[in-house]
Automatic annotation (TrEMBL):
L-histidine binds at residues 65-67, 92, 106, 110, 299, 304-305. One of its GO terms (molecular function) is histidine-tRNA ligase activity. This is Histidine--tRNA ligase. GO terms for cellular component: cytoplasm. InterPro entries: aa-tRNA-synth_II (IPR006195), aa-tRNA-synth_II/BPL/LPL (IPR045864), HisRS-like_core (IPR041715), HisRS/HisZ (IPR004516). It comes from the Bacteria. PROSITE patterns: AA_TRNA_LIGASE_II. NCBIfam families: PRK12295.1-5. Residues 14-351 form the Aminoacyl-transfer RNA synthetases class-II family profile domain.
Length: 362
């Protein structure tokens, strides 16, 4: 692993590069209020972050990334349009993969601009691609907005759509819900018996745990309502499966997804945004004919992104995490904007990994 001094030197150069592109340098505290992140992502964030407690400030987290505090700062005090850059340590628990770093330097570039979102997407992608030039990385793109639009427009209950939306970033759970809501997976016998009982709490014994009797009964009634709802149509399920399986170069992916939109017309506006992005990328010199697109990309690690997503990977080093990632997070600005919102897109790079790859080639 390169020495820390060299990583910091590279981080400073990258930050200067983004400043030359028009970004204002910003700093954020290493300790962040845990409440904000927990409200956004639920308790799942605890599995990836270092949490501590302060008698005055309450629960705090070592900064898992810069995006949330930068968005908070911009929504409270920022002018429009705005571009920011930053560098510093982030901290991620790696219990599932102890060989990966749990503390590393990150450099980022964020754009808050409502003028032309497609152009902003292309700006961030191409600036980061240029910063990585010479490393022979594989670039992958996707668009979380397609799946969000597809789920929002399903012909099913609001409760089912809300559950699917919560689990878009948990592919296994999302798949299990689709199987259940489509009627493909049978109702477990124990659940069927519970829902059929006239008094489901009979013989249940004393209430133990955090949920009250009323909350348990409300949950049972919600399950009964779901069981009574008609299944999601095979047409919609098949179209969703086709959408999620799309993995092609950008122009072919767009063509394939236009066919999917025949059965999922609600994704058409997202496809129009994708087409505008392809045009904007090509205008900046990107070889879009050979740029990869995966409709499922970003679903396991990019919870606040809701549109364009991308990553750069060392093809010869599958053991390494991505050298750079990014995407669009318009919904995050709404969540943190206290009534305001602005289209926003950004990306981050890992200078330590960049140096590791350079050393391997030397």
């Amino acid at each position: 692993m390169p020495q820390r001094a060299r990583i910091l030197e590279r981080a400073a150069k990258l930050r200067g590069y983004f400043e030359q592109a028009g970004a204002r340098p910003v700093e954020t505290p290493v300790l962040q209020p845990a409440e904000t992140l927990l409200d956004l992502y639920g308790e799942d964030i605890r599995a990836r972050a270092y949490v501590t407690s302060d008698a005055v400030r309450g629960e705090q987290m070592l900064r898992p990334d810069f995006t949330v505090p930068v968005v908070q700062m911009h929504m409270a005090h920022g002018a429009e349009p705005a571009r920011y850059t930053y560098s510093g340590e982030v901290f991620r628990r790696q219990e599932h993969d102890p060989d990966r770093d749990n503390e590393y330097i990150q450099v980022g570039y964020e754009v808050f601009d409502r003028t032309d979102p497609a152009a902003a997407d292309a700006e961030v992608f191409t600036l980061i691609a240029k910063a990585l030039s010479g490393l022979h990385l594989r670039a992958t793109t996707g668009d979380i907005g397609l799946l969000l639009a597809a789920v929002t427009g399903l012909e099913t209950t609001a409760a089912r759509k809300a559950a699917l939306m919560r689990h878009i970033w948990r592919p296994r759970r999302f798949r299990a819900l689709l199987e259940r809501y489509s009627g493909r997976s049978p109702v477990p016998p124990a659940r069927a018996a519970l829902l059929a009982a006239s008094d489901p709490m009979a013989g249940a014994g004393p209430v133990i745990g955090l949920r009250s009797r009323a909350e348990v009964l409300a949950r049972i009634e919600a399950l009964r309502a779901d069981a009574a709802a008609p299944p999601i149509s095979e047409r919609e399920i098949s179209a969703l499966e086709t959408l999620l399986a799309v993995r092609e170069t950008l122009p072919f992916a767009l063509e394939h997804l236009r066919d999917v939109a025949v059965d999922l017309p609600q994704i058409t506006p997202a496809l129009d945004r994708l087409e505008a992005r392809i045009t904007a990328l090509a205008a900046r010199g990107v070889d879009v004919d050979n740029l990869e697109f995966e409709a499922s990309y970003g679903r396991t690690s990019m919870e606040y992104y809701d549109g364009f997503v991308f990553g750069f990977y060392a093809a010869a080093r599958a053991d390494l995490p991505p050298v750079a990632t990014g995407g669009r997070y318009d919904a995050l600005t709404r969540a943190l904007g206290d009534g305001g919102e602005i289209p926003a897109v950004g990306g981050v790079l890992r200078p330590g990994l960049m140096l590791t790859l350079e050393e391997a080639r030397a």
